[in-house]
Amino acid sequence: MSFRSGFVSIVGRPNAGKSTLLNALLGQKLAIVTHKPQTTRTRIQGVVEIPLKKKTSSEPGHPAAQVVLVDTPGIHKPDTHLDKRMMQEVHDALESRDLVLFIVDVTHRLPKTEPENTRADGKIKTTGRMALSKAEDDFALQLIQRLKQTEGGCPVVLLLNKIDAISPAEIMPLIAHWSGLYPFAEVIPISARKKINLDLLLDKVVGLLPEGQRYFPKHQLTDQPERFLVAELIREKILLLTGEEVPYATAVVIEKYEEPTERPDAKRPKGAKLPLTKIAAAIFCERTGQKAILIGKQGAMLKEIGTAARKDIESLLGTRVFLELFVKVQEEWRSKPGFIEDLDWRRELEQIAAKQAAEAETGDLK
Ligand SMILES: Nc1nc2c(ncn2[C@@H]2O[C@H](COP(=O)(O)OP(=O)(O)OP(=O)(O)O)[C@@H](O)[C@H]2O)c(=O)[nH]1
């Protein structure tokens, strides 16, 4: 059996569980996860190596494969410039893919036509779970529908996520409902949080990928620079620790990132301290009131955010970390294209590369 490889986009509306799934598949915390929608702002790639599975009497088996997973911001109707930027990320992710995993949260909306959801007068029972925004589901489905029209098409696998939170009897009606809306290549009920059916999912993914070589070296987990992941971890703590008003108005920019000269996995005498990474980050918010909340009484909130983030960053990097946080006000940053462009780590990298190239060139001329 020959090797398979490909780019697999995970798409779905906010809070469907995309980041949780990515992390579960990678077995390491990579995309940040919180209970608040729209946590994921830019695409995050993770690489999963899937070993060969030999054919047995009960299993068809599959070849070894490398799956490049692309997490996307939740699909929603764009309002601000930041929203538009996030939706562009979704479009981009859909364009460069071999397979799409369309993930829906089964606790949000049950099929409307099922008898148990229909009252005696024919009206739909609107329980909390059936709730909310049909418009958002429809919008997400529209994006998927567009894939059908693109050249060559691309298989879409529907993942019914959070099945741990509903009763088993509710799963079949959901499968029937969604199968009627789009010709999905597969419909798989999963729980990203409880890791239910994830092996089955990976088996199906390998089966749907084209034959091809690795895109990334075998042990590379992600193509994201660590400094971007660090900014995401800080942003996660802000989301978790501050109140409703602040989180969406914050952006984290890494201003200093000094890696230790010594490798974290280098041999060192027993009891010797791990090397130290020095990081300074600015937290941008839109108003002075938000700044006050982020700093807290006598700096208590900022300290809490910093301590929680530092612990996670230390386990991500495998070094000790000295983390300095500053809070800055940048009015209406969410509507300023230039500012948002600068948040993009890829652009940041391009700028660093351009600067280094210019420096090298002037060095050559000397
Ligand atoms: N019960 C249950 N909860 C889950 C499951 N998967 C994710 N969640 C929860 O759903 C919430 C949202 O999960 P995320 O992974 O951040 O969702 P997302 O789709 O990446 O969200 P955005 O970044 O906003 O687009 C978190 O509180 C998760 O713990 C699951 O399988 N079961």
TrEMBL record:
Residues 161-164 are annotated as: G4. Residues 38-42 are annotated as: G2. It is a peripheral membrane protein. CDD domains: Era (cd04163), KH-II_Era (cd22534). GO terms for biological process: ribosomal small subunit assembly. Residues 71-74 are annotated as: G3. Residues 12-19 are annotated as: G1. GTP binds at residues 12-19, 71-75, 161-164. Residues 190-192 are annotated as: G5. PROSITE patterns: G_ERA. It is found in: Cytoplasm; Cell membrane. Keywords: Cell membrane, Cytoplasm, GTP-binding, Membrane, Nucleotide-binding, Ribosome biogenesis, RNA-binding, rRNA-binding. InterPro entries: AAA+_ATPase, G_ERA_dom, GTP-bd, GTPase_Era-like, KH_dom-like_a/b, KH_dom_type_2, KH_sf_prok-type, P-loop_NTPase. Its main location: cytoplasm. SUPFAM superfamilies: P-loop containing nucleoside triphosphate hydrolases, Prokaryotic type KH domain (KH-domain type II). One of its GO terms (cellular component) is plasma membrane. It comes from the Bacteria. One of its GO terms (molecular function) is ribosomal small subunit binding. HAMAP family: GTPase_Era. Belongs to the TRAFAC class TrmE-Era-EngA-EngB-Septin-like GTPase superfamily. Era GTPase family. This is GTPase Era. It comes from Granulicella sibirica. The gene is era.
